Amino acid sequence: MEKMKRDRIDDILDIVLPIPESAPAGADEPTRASREAVREEVVRQREIFERFLRVADAGGAEPHGDILVNEIDRARTEMREAEDRMRMLIAYGREFIAPQPYPLKMLAAAAGMSISGTRGAYTDDEVRAVADRIGRRPVQDRALAD
């Protein structure tokens, strides 16, 4: 049997979107069906992502001229977006939940932060963004008092 030729795009696909393992041999039908549905979805996403990478590679891979560097840049952007989302979720848990906000200890553990780091993890801007997104003001309204 001839081994298929692989390139960087194949490697990037395996790193970014690995195909999940099949259900164990003794798994029940719902578990097998669920695992197979996830695998099929990942395969579909990989096909789309591969087309994107191949077109980008053929076209000079803007903005950095290299598909690997672009994917690293995209991963960094996703990390920043996740950090922004985490700060807003912490702000929500502390400023919008009544009658008692989530304890700092609980939020710190979930965020992988210290309690003092969690206390200062968000700004008034994040509180405003949460208020805009959910359509209501914080419980104490202290952060938005201008």
Q: What overall form do the CA principal axes indicate?
A: extended
Q: Taking all residues together, what is the mean pLDDT? A: 90
Note the beta-strand portion. Answer: under 5%
Low-confidence stretches: none
Overall number of strands: 0
Class of secondary structure makeup? mainly alpha
* Tally of separate helices: 6
* Rg from alpha-carbon coordinates: 22 Å
The portion of residues assigned to helices is 55-70%
Kindly report how far apart the N and C termini lie: 72 Å
Main sheet overview? none
- What sequence of helices (H) and strands (E) makes up the elements? HHHHHH
Can you describe what's shown?
With 146 residues, this protein is mostly helical. The chain is 63% helix and 0% strand. The protein contains six helices and no strands.
List the helices and strands and how they pair.
Layout: H1 8-16, H2 29-58, H3 67-95, H4 104-111, H5 115-119, H6 124-134
Give a concise summary.
The chain has helices at 8-16, 29-58, 67-95, 104-111, 115-119, 124-134.
Distinctive features:
mainly alpha, 63% helix, 146 residues
